[in-house]
Structures are given as structure tokens and as C-alpha cells.
Amino acid sequence: MNWIKRILGGLIVLILILIGVSYLLPGKAEVSRSITIAAPPEAIFLYVNSMQETEKWSPWLSRDPETKLTYSGPDAGVGNTLNWSSEHPQVGTGSQEIIASTPDQAVRTALDFGPMGTATASFVLQPEGQQTQVTWGFTSELGLNPMSRWMGVMMDKWVGGDYERGLDNLKALVEGQG
């Protein structure tokens, strides 16, 4: 009976340590990947400034071809919104709306994953001679939830590969148009 109390006491101490350490972890999760595409910014911009066009290179839609997509607002630019719904756990349900758009330079979006939280994403197009460096970024405020902070540590590992695949898809799409 005494050993059960020791085990329970040890578990409680371990949980308290994990919670305490979580407050030392970053309060924000950030992911960023870049690729150089052999095209000018204006050839790339239309594929990042429209949720309908992202469908052509998204790294997530291939995971669940049954994902339900609906669009609202204008066809491109600020206010263009995508809502998606999928039973696949790596796709899930949510919405993404373009909240800022600077032609041939940058696009910023607001993401809402429902109970999973919110985030912002961005695309920055930087001309480099006859090419363009495209940087796709993601930022999420994690708040004070200890579990969110531990998950934030893993965000780059979880999302980074998807961003790389998406940028590879975008590169193939844009360079294939030329």
C-alpha cells in the first residue's frame, strides 16, 4: 500500500514539473520554409493570393481527396475565404481567410482550426534576378495552456515537411506554366 502512495506521489511531482517547465517554453509556435522558383513574383502571386488557386498545389488535399471545400468572398485578395472539412485527422476542419495582400510581394492569412486554435500564415515573394524566393510562414500564439506549449515545440516537425511539399508543388506548377 505504501508503494502505491509513493508511485502516485511521484506521478504528481512529475506532472507538476512538466506543467512548470511548460511555462519556460516559447509562447509562440513559428514555422517557415523557403524555395526559389524560376519565375517572376507576378507569376507566383496569383497562386498564393487566392484560396481557389492554392487547391492546385496544397500539400494537404492529397491526404484526403474527399475533403469538402467551400469558398466565399472575392475570388482573390483580401476577404477570399476557404472553409474545409475532412474526417482525416491530418486535414481536419477549419477556415482560412486572406487578411492582407500586397500585389506581387506578400499575402497574409488568418487560420481558424476551431477548438485547435488560430494562427496566421504568410507568403513573402522576394525577387532574385530572374527568380523569386518564396517564403511560407506560420505563427500561432500558444497562450498559457501547458499542453499547447508542449505541442508548440513539435510544430516545426509536424508542419515543416508539409510546407516543403507544398512549396515543391508550387514550384512544379509555376515552372511548368513557363
TrEMBL record:
Transmembrane recorded as keyword:
yes
> Where would you find the membrane-spanning parts of this chain?
7-25
* Database matches in SUPFAM superfamilies: Bet v1-like
**UniProt keyword Membrane, yes or no:** yes
Among the Pfam families in the record, one is Polyketide_cyc2
Q: Which UniProt keywords apply?
A: Membrane, Transmembrane, Transmembrane helix
Q: What is this protein called?
A: SRPBCC family protein
Q: Which organism is it from?
A: Ruegeria haliotis
The major lineage groups are:
Bacteria, Pseudomonadati, Pseudomonadota, Alphaproteobacteria, Rhodobacterales
